[in-house]
Amino acid sequence: MNTKVKEENGRELKVENQQMSGSSMLIQALAREKVDVIFGYPGGAILPTYDEIYRTGIRHILARHEQGAIHAAEGYARVSGKPGVCVVTSGPGATNVITGIADAMIDSLPLVVITGQVATSVIGTDAFQEADIIGVTMPITKHNFQVRNVNDLPNIIKESFHIATSGRPGPVLIDLPKDVSIAIGEFNYDEPLDLPGYQPTKIPNRLQIRKLAEAVAKAKKPVILTGAGILHAGGSEEVLEFAENQQIPVASTLLGLGAFPGDHEQFLGMGGMHGTYSANMALHEADLLINIGARFDDRLTGRLDAFAPYATIAHIDIDPAEIGKNVETHIPIVGDAKEAMRMLNEEAKTNCECGDWKETIKEWKAEYPLWYTEDDELLKPQRLIEMIYEETNGDAIITTDVGQHQMWSAQFYKFPKPNQWVTSGGLGTMGFGFPSAIGAQFAEPDKTVVAVVGDAGFQMTAQELSILQELNLPVKIIIVNNASLGMVRQWQQLFYEERYSNSLFPIQPDFVKLADAYNVKGWKIEDPAEMQDILKEALAYDGPVLLDCRVHKVENVYPMIAPGKGHHEMEGIKP
Amino acid sequence: MRKTIVATVNNTSGVMNRITGLFARRNFNIESITVGMTENPRVSRMTFVMNVDDQRGLDQVIKQLNKQVDVLKVRDLTDEAIVARELALIKVLSPPQQRGELTDLIQPFRASIIDVSRESITIQVTGDNDKVEALIDLVKPYGIKELARTGITAFKRDTKKGVIDSPKYSVIN
Ligand SMILES: Cc1ncc(C[n+]2csc(CCOP(=O)(O)OP(=O)(O)O)c2C)c(N)n1
After folding, report:
1. Where are the coiled-coil regions (chain B) (predicted)?
2. B69: distance to nearest CA of chain A, Å?
3. Domain A381-550 part of CATH 2.60.40.10
């Protein structure tokens, strides 16, 4: 039986029970999974697949380093909610994507990564470009497969997409030996999934939801903590409804930004190491902490035994292993955040009486907002982020690298909507910011995508300027240039008596010339008075741009909870 | 706390690796692991004996195991009625004049001598952890040259509390 269905673009979408090669199956399966773009880089072991890519015309974006490809796939996944797909060769191609895989694992991003592998007959013999990528990625993938028989391939791909995108999302790797990609087998993509060991819980237990509703009714000082789980579940509206009905203040994790509107009066901002005073004090003083889809990461909690000392802890998470992992939980709720909040909105009838608490929080917000000293001569990085917020009307997709500029972006860009914020949270991967913006632009071709990067982190993946040049992709790169590894310099200043070991850049490349080499329009800005106008022009420009913004070099990120301290021990709050 | 945990897993290559890797990474303290096929050749059964500090630590172990796609089911059998056995091979120094004494000593354990050389004998014993420990203690004074233990493998009983388990060290070993 042969069934063929044509998609609008004429590509054959469905070719059932037909004999074909492994690489052909792969491309067919990607079409069945509605993959519209692949990020990758070819090489020996994956050549049969690249030949299929050539023949079918499936959209493939050639990065200039595999790390660029995988971060682009992550950015795409983060913004679109769809799995990012990355294809690379064996050995060095595969090892070059490890950082991105680990990054996607810890930040729960759905990826399907396909690595070429040497032929099955020589696996284990240290053949040319052989790396044990299954062994290497076992602890940093949600699951991985090595395909040993071409007839298993359709199922493996189907299972990979299912595992990557369901439950708590994460990266899945498929290791495809060259001989398997050439071998002929039968393509059948309609077999039902058979994964008895993988049954994520989506619908929470209503009794637990009731328990939480009762706790809400009794609470005098409740606070909500929003995590990225809400974004994955698409549960922002339900959270907003709950928070507004109950008049509960909301703090966010770094990755949760945008899950609750950043410009909402109940929003306290980000909590944790560089969080706001009001968010951290609310977490510290709360008698009920409702964690929705966050994993109580150490950058959020600070010293664990000082974390939320007076609170009943409720934790909604789709991953049961997160509950009780770091913080003892009194009301555990395993399930999808959207479902849980929908049920909670049904159950939570009585409103919490927390008038005094609201007053206290209002005072904290008014007395101790985020702050910085203004300067006429020097461009303040915080002001730069505020300008980006103003000039994009809060509507841009912002990606960042890792360091001070990342924290300032989290603090000063008030993300009003979900999936506008792309940052490497758990792994803190320098080099993530720029390529993830490329992926984000593919996910949202009509939106303004701004990559806010440090002068150091940008240099880790700057080669991807080639993609902008080649496709005239209108990503706006904004380098927050402090001529140093800013965050490292800050820690050395505060905790190593100003011994600036390997963190200052007295000599730097000319970033504008670098942009020019790739035919990307560049500006260098030193005078703060020029900043706004150039930013306007750059954002309005139809094409890629790079702004080298020379900011105050020794500015620090504040407020701060020093390592090993609790939320009530913040430093650098507004005097 | 000493805990006995049993997991059924897909019998695929690498599954052992996934699980030991997980234990190593999360710093779980494992005393023994046994693995073997079940009545269903696609499914293997693993038994772990481990030391955990508290209930939360144990919960984490079980949850992390459950998260593995190849893990079908995990049970903590510590407080259940179970049959648990391990096998130990003990090579003991034994000059010919002490052989009779040793043979008498191990007899109540239903242990057997499976190899004899001029200065040593190898004893095979099967039983639960306590029994194996007890025999090892008994023969220690003679001088243990080599010791190999398989680790516990365990089953939940169909009937409640073991009728067959007592009297100790006799009927079914
Ligand atoms: C791959 C990688 N290497 C090292 C680090 C450690 N690190 C964290 S922030 C930072 C400095 C980043 O400097 P820059 O990109 O200029 O950003 P800034 O902090 O100045 O805003 C470093 C080296 C990291 N996070 N990632």
Report:
1. none
2. 5
3. no
Phi, psi of A459 (to 5 degrees): -70, -10
A455 Cα: distance to centroid of ligand 1 (angstroms) = 9
- Alpha-carbon distance of B163 to B147, in angstroms, equals 31
Report the CATH number that the domain containing residue B112 is assigned in CATH: 3.30.70.1150
Any residues with CB less than 8 A from the CB of B76 and at least 6 apart, and which?
B3, B4, B5, B58, B62
Choose, from A12, A128, A328, A362, the residue flagged as catalytic.
A128
| CATH architecture, domain defined by A206-367 | 3-Layer(aba) Sandwich (3.40)
B63 interfaces chain A, CB cutoff of 8 Å: yes
Q: Is residue B18 part of a domain?
A: yes
Helix spans in A266-374 (H): 277-285, 298-301, 337-347, 355-367
Interface predicted TM-score (ipTM) = 0.88
Topology agreement, domain A5-187 and domain A206-367:
yes
Structure tokens at B115: 């190899």
User: What is the token pair recorded at A540?
Assistant: 């309005």
| C-alpha span between B98 and B111 (Å, rounded) | 17
* Radius of gyration, alpha carbons of chain A: 24
Residue type at position B18: R
Separation CA A193–CA A196 (nearest Å): 9
pTM, full prediction: 0.94
**Three-class secondary structure assignment of A405-459:** HHHHHHHHCCCCCCCCEECCCCCCCCCCHHHHHHHHHHHCCCCCEEEEEEHHHHC
Which residues 147-206 of chain A have a CB within 8 Å of chain B? Answer: 163, 195-198
Catalytic annotation on A129? yes
DSSP β-bridge partners for residue B50: B3, B30
Q: Which residues of A touch B15 (CB under 8 A)?
A: none
Amino acid of residue A71: H
First vs last Cα of chain B: how many Å apart?
Answer: 27
Q: How far apart are CA A145 and CA B70, in angstroms?
A: 11
> Are both B71 and B94 inside the same structural domain?
no
Domain segments of chain A as ranges: 5-187, 206-367, 381-550
Q: Measured between alpha carbons, how far is A554 from A73 in angstroms, rounded to an integer?
A: 34
pLDDT per residue of chain A (575 residues) written in tens, 0 to 9 = 334 444 444 455 556 678 999 999 999 999 999 999 999 999 999 999 999 999 999 999 999 999 999 999 999 999 999 999 999 999 999 999 999 999 999 999 999 999 999 999 999 999 999 999 999 999 999 999 999 999 999 999 999 999 999 999 999 999 999 999 999 999 999 999 999 999 999 999 999 999 999 999 999 999 999 999 999 999 999 999 999 999 999 999 999 999 999 999 999 999 999 999 999 999 999 999 999 999 999 999 999 999 999 999 999 999 999 999 999 999 999 999 999 999 999 999 877 788 899 999 999 999 999 999 999 999 999 999 999 999 999 999 999 999 999 999 999 999 999 999 999 999 999 999 999 999 999 999 999 999 999 999 999 999 999 999 999 999 999 999 999 999 999 999 999 999 999 999 999 999 999 999 999 999 999 999 999 999 999 999 999 999 999 999 999 999 999 999 999 999 999 98
Whether residue B60 is contained in a domain is answered as yes
Q: Do A325 and B21 touch (CB under 8 A)?
A: no
Question: Which domain covers residue B65, as residue numbers?
Answer: 2-76
Tell whether B134 and B69 lie within a shared domain: no
Would you call B51 helix, strand, or coil by DSSP?
strand
In a domain, B164, yes or no: no
List of residues 6+ apart from A498 with CB closer than 8 A: A492
Q: Which of A116, A139, A120, A115 shows the shortest CA–CA distance to B14? A: A139
Nearest to A202 by CA among A234, A240, A225, A242: A234
Minimum distance, in Å, between the CA of residue A198 and any CA atom of chain B: 5
